[in-house]
Amino acid sequence: MDIFQHTIRKSVSFAGVGLHSGNPVHLYIKPAAPDSGICFVRTDLDSRVTIPASLHRISDTRLATTLSSEDIQVGTTEHLLAALIGMGVDNAVVELDSDEVPIMDGSAGPFAHLLKKVERQQQKSKRVMLKVTKEISVKNGTSEVRILPYDGMKVTCNIDFDHDMIQKQSLSLEITPESFFQEIASARTFGFLHEVEYMRQNGKALGGSLDNAVVVDQDGVLNVEGLRFSDEFVRHKILDLIGDLALLGCPVLGHVIASKAGHTQHFQLMKAIVGNPDCWQFVNLTHNGNESTLEKMVSSTREVRNKIKPFLLPPQLAPFNRASCSI
Ligand SMILES: [Zn+2]
């Protein structure tokens, strides 16, 4: 785990289409100042609208995670956010000229590859992490998401689809930049053919194709190249979970166990975390000889804590406005 925050060494750019809108999108990821977090900036509008990557900006979780500021939105944020957080980038400005992050190949792989290539830049501020100290869980019908105390970031995901190609899949993984890159980043989003057809009729998935999603019908996978992993489906669910948890605004130390969950349940878990401040504390890492140890944040780090903590409160209570992030 990193003691200090990181941004990227230089800007990187991507071009693609929005999965649901079908619109072309140009996207830039740019370095950002310490403690500024991740912000989206719409550059196609008359006024430069900034939307912080915060759970308080979530406006829709039905097909993907959409963030909004008043009536301005950025859709399908989760794969890009997963790539940033998964690759250990704390601070970045994401500029885009449309209302949806490009879907690329349906995974976080293209983002992660370029972030790895451009390399990270260590910054002077220490990383502040949210360490879970007591279990928090949310249950919704047959879906359940829990987070348990753990000195690291671990994710266990269980899915159960009534389909021969998928059925029950389960995977448990310690998340580090290396494991994220190797095991998770290239797992693609997936859908069932009948659902894709229904979405198209309702003006969604207009940019979807076999180039950016695994599509399954009753006979199997329609993509001629097949699957990238035999359990690509559960790996993509872990990718989505990592991307959504980025909206807490700082790395999380805990073991998340998600069963039959999606964006809506991830959002419910984040709200439960924010609503139960007695179940977690802010920590950072300190060197102790050759080892790095977790330390509960004390008065000497109050300045950083005061910057991060309001991020976890409802915007109307927060004296600190992350929307003012600068580059
Ligand atoms: Zn996804």
From TrEMBL:
Keywords: Hydrolase, Lipid A biosynthesis, Lipid biosynthesis, Lipid metabolism, Metal-binding, Zinc. Its EC number is 3.5.1.108. Zn(2+) binds at residues 79, 236, 240. Pathway: Glycolipid biosynthesis; lipid IV(A) biosynthesis; lipid IV(A) from (3R)-3-hydroxytetradecanoyl-[acyl-carrier-protein] and UDP-N-acetyl-alpha-D-glucosamine: step 2/6. The active site is at residue 263. It holds the Pfam family LpxC. It is an enzyme of class 3 (hydrolase). GO terms for cellular component: membrane. GO terms for biological process: lipid A biosynthetic process. GO terms for molecular function: metal ion binding; UDP-3-O-acyl-N-acetylglucosamine deacetylase activity. It catalyses: a UDP-3-O-[(3R)-3-hydroxyacyl]-N-acetyl-alpha-D-glucosamine + H2O = a UDP-3-O-[(3R)-3-hydroxyacyl]-alpha-D-glucosamine + acetate. Its cofactor is Zn(2+). Transmembrane segments: none annotated. Catalyzes the hydrolysis of UDP-3-O-myristoyl-N-acetylglucosamine to form UDP-3-O-myristoylglucosamine and acetate, the committed step in lipid A biosynthesis. Belongs to the LpxC family. This is UDP-3-O-acyl-N-acetylglucosamine deacetylase. The gene is lpxC.
